[in-house]
Design brief:
Shape: globular
CATH topology of the largest domain: Methylamine Dehydrogenase, Chain H
Helix content: under 10%
Radius of gyration: 24 Å
CATH architecture of the largest domain: 7 Propeller
Structural class: mainly beta
Strand order of the largest sheet: 3-4-5-6
Largest sheet: 4 strands, antiparallel
CATH superfamily of the largest domain: YVTN repeat-like/Quinoprotein amine dehydrogenase
Number of domains: 2
Number of helices: 4
Length: 536
């Protein structure tokens, strides 16, 4: 089992072919003044130096002690486009330069949600943690981007109406352990398969755990807004629109300013019956609090006007209750499952109801509770086979699978670690898609076996290294996909040839400067290795 950290970017490696102009260093006849050492400054003086008001143009100081200011991403994107346009105008050589994809395309990266395209056979959409939204028309084997580069790339949740209208909730709900994840800028809608997108509001939600379109009325959309991770307040709770996103109403509010909604499900026979889970959590500079009294599961029978807490004594309000995932069996509206987590990140159990949430019983044989399953706040979703209420899947490092309604569990085979999203294509019996930290997987036998996608050009690189002897040889350290290289032995390097040379989270990578048959790779927690020409 691997433990993952998150990178600062989530795009394939790109190489620019640029004819750079000459650079010169200005010469001054006078020596610059020497800045006084910080050791000689009092605490109050140091605070004055770090006062954002003293340097209003410094974005780092402006965000000190808080978060990135609202709208900063959009302003930075606009500024980057303007700088690029000006540079291309002033430098003809740069105007001719083009980025070329160098991969990896055969590995993939974290996928948080998958939805089936109702308008195209073998069509599926994948929502990535920091690479936007992608569309496949061949059953999840090859993808193309359907998300603009200038928008936030963190897609926390995705749904689609029966007519094919896409709804995307931005910002990743999973908060990370010692790592970071990225926030978003609200809810987006596309009526043309991702060719164009419109922001539909809830910009202060920051992170969205689930978005759900009412299958009977596509103007009704539910959003589980988890709220900012690092600060209190914001647009937290369960929101509902009845007019296609023109206006939103918060129908379920958290118990405090650190509680937001993280999951929502509808009764398959009655859309007025709604189930939702709330999660009380905040990340502070010196600690993470991923449980709290605000966490819990709730049910409404009147379309969200009134709510009743469900789950029984085990899931009653307490400071040790963490993230909760909930689902309703499509073939039996009385069958409800809740996946719960604890303060330490352990899974507290899978709870089952056979009476529409009136009472719950925990499973009796749960490998989810033990072993190395110590970051349940990273997953928090549970799925049910559309045709069999006893066939249930619980996300985790492995995909835990039960065929007896949660009494016993095994693990679905052939999947990369860290499961997040799952979707069945009811037009093709047995077709099911899974999204995890290794991209997407497709099964045609209802999860008995899976096939990995072939072309998935979204990744989360920590670092890139290029050989000094052969610039076609590239090393890339990838989140949860190890330290990789784009060649093997004497084979020609290629964007689809990447293979592992170190495991876990690939962080820093380097070639020996005099012999590129020797490489160095590191993973999380400072574990580094020297790898020779034979890969040993």
């Amino acid at each position: 089992m691997r433990r993952r950290l998150l990178p600062l970017a989530a795009l394939p490696v790109l190489v620019a072919l640029v004819a750079a102009p000459g650079l010169t260093t200005p010469v001054s006849s006078a020596a610059p003044a020497v800045a006084p050492p910080l050791a000689g400054i009092s605490a109050s003086g140091l605070e004055a130096l770090l006062d954002p008001a003293a340097e209003p143009g410094d974005p780092m100081l402006a965000a000190r002690g808080g978060t990135v200011p609202a709208g900063a991403f959009e302003r930075a994107s606009t500024q980057a486009a303007a700088v690029g346009a000006k540079t291309r105008t002033s430098d003809p050589a740069l105007a001719k330069a083009r980025w070329q994809l160098r991969g990896p395309t055969n590995i993939g990266g974290r996928v948080l949600d998958v939805v089936v395209d109702p308008k195209r056979r073998n069509g599926v959409y994948a929502a990535t943690a920091s690479g936007g939204i992608w569309h496949s028309t061949d059953g999840g084997m090859r993808y193309r981007s359907v998300w603009p580069d200038h928008l936030t790339q963190a897609i926390g949740a995705l749904d689609i109406s029966r007519r094919g209208v896409l709804w995307a909730g931005t910002g990743e709900a999973g908060p990370g352990g010692g790592s970071i994840t990225y926030g978003g800028t609200g809810v987006y809608r596309s009526a043309d398969g991702g060719k164009s997108w419109q922001n539909m509001g809830l910009k202060g939600s920051d992170r969205i755990g689930r978005i759900l379109v009412d299958p009977r009325n596509e103007n009704v959309v539910w959003v589980a807004a988890n709220g900012p991770l690092y600060t209190r307040g914001g647009e937290r709770g369960l929101y509902k629109t009845t007019n296609g996103g023109k206006t939103w109403t918060r129908v379920l509010e958290g118990a405090n300013d650190t509680t937001g909604a993280v999951d929502v499900q509808l009764d398959p026979t009655n859309s007025d019956v709604v189930y939702a889970t709330m999660w009380d959590r905040i990340r502070e500079p010196d600690r993470r609090l991923y449980t709290g009294v605000g966490s819990g599961a709730f049910k409404s029978t009147d379309g969200g006007k009134t709510w009743t807490r469900i789950g029984g004594p085990s899931l009653a309000s307490n400071r040790l209750l963490g993230r909760l995932g909930i689902t309703v069996a499509p073939s039996d509206p009385n069958r409800v499952y809740i996946l719960a987590s604890t303060e330490a990140g352990l899974t507290a159990g899978l709870y089952r109801s056979d009476d529409g949430g009136a009472t719950f019983t925990p499973g009796v044989d749960l490998p989810l509770v033990t072993g190395g399953f110590v970051y349940a706040w990273w997953f928090g979703r549970v799925y049910v086979d559309p045709k069999d209420p006893d066939h249930v899947f619980a996300t985790g490092v492995n995909m835990s699978e039960s065929t007896d309604g949660g009494l016993t569990f095994g693990s679905s085979p052939g999947l990369h670690a860290d499961q997040h999203g799952m979707a069945w294509d009811l037009r093709q019996p047995g077709r099911v898609y899974v999204g995890n930290d290794g991209g997407t997987y497709t099964s045609d036998d209802n999860g008995a076996t899976f096939e990995h996608g072939e072309y998935m050009p979204w990744n989360q690189p920590f670092s890139v290294a290029v050989s000094q002897q052969n610039p076609e040889k590239i090393l890339v350290g990838l989140q949860d996909n190890g330290g990789t290289r784009n060649y093997l032995g004497d084979d020609e390097p290629g964007e689809d040839q990447y293979n592992d040379i170190t495991g876990g989270d690939g962080t820093e990578m380097a070639f020996d400067p005099t012999d590129d048959s020797i490489v160095y790779g590191c993973s999380q927690y400072g574990v580094c290795a020297r790898v020779g020409a034979a890969g040993a």
